[in-house]
Automatic annotation (TrEMBL):
Keywords: Membrane, Transmembrane, Transmembrane helix. It holds the Pfam family Frag1. Residues 13-226 form the CWH43-like N-terminal domain. The lineage of its organism: Eukaryota, Fungi, Dikarya, Basidiomycota, Agaricomycotina. InterPro entries: CWH43_N, DRAM/TMEM150_Autophagy_Mod. It is a multi-pass membrane protein. PANTHER family: EG:22E5.9 PROTEIN, FASTING-INDUCIBLE INTEGRAL MEMBRANE PROTEIN TM6P1-RELATED. It is found in: Endomembrane system. The chain crosses the membrane at residues 12-37, 66-84, 104-126, 138-161, 173-193, 199-222. This is Frag1/DRAM/Sfk1.
Amino acid sequence: MAIFSHKRHHWAYVWIPIVGAFIWFGTLWAMLITWLATGRPHYVSMAANQHVPFISDIAADILKPLFITSCTITAISFILDLIIERYLRHSGRLMPNMRTRERVFSSLAILGSLIGGAGLILLSIFDTRRHKTLHDSFLLVFIVGVALSAIFTVVEFRWIYKDFQYAPLLKRSYWMKAIIAGILIILACAFAGTEFKVVNVGGIFEWIIAMGFTFYLLTFYYDLRQSKGVHRGELSADRLNSNNRRYRMRQVA
C-alpha cells in the first residue's frame, strides 16, 4: 500500500528543497544574530580594518558545529533536488527532455551540484581560522560548482520551454531560475573583486549572496510541486509529441 495517495505523492519529495532552504536561511540568521548579540566581536580571522565579518569568520568560532551541519544538509538537499527533478522528467511526471542535449545539460547540472555541494561541506570543515588556504579553495569550488549547475539548469529549462510554450508553469520556472541565478552570479563576481581589496564591501556581498541562495533553492519546490496529481508516464515524450505538433500547427495557421 502506498504511503501517499496519488494526489499527494509529491509530498514524498517537495519537502526536500524547503528543508534545505529553511536550514540554510535559519543558520545564516543564527550566525548574524549571534555576532550582533555578542557585541560585534572582531574575530581572529578578520583583517585589521574589517568591520563586517565574512560568514566564515563567524563559522570558525563556537558555531562551527552548527555551520558544518547546516552546510551538509543544504548540500545534500541541493543535489537531491536536481536528481529528483531529473527522475521526474524521465518518468513522465514533469515536462520531459525531448532531446539528448537537454539530458546532457541536466546531467551536467547534477555534476555541478555535486562539485558545489562537496565544496560547501569541505569549506565548513576546513575553517578560515585554521585552514585559510584550503577554506578559500573550497569556497571557490562551491561558488563555481553552484554557478555552473545553475547555468546548465537554466539552459536546460530554456530548451524545454521552447518545446512546450503552452506550459505557463514551465515558463515561470525558467524565468525565476534565470533571474535569481543571473543576479547571484553577478553578485558573486562583485564579491570576488572586493573580497581581498575592500573587505567590508566584500563581506556585505557575501551575506547578500548567501541569503539569495535560499531563494534559488526554493525554486526547486516550485518545480517539484508541478508533479502533483500527475501519473507516471502522463507527460512522457512520446505522449506529448503529438500534442506539441498540434500546438505548432495552430501557431502556423
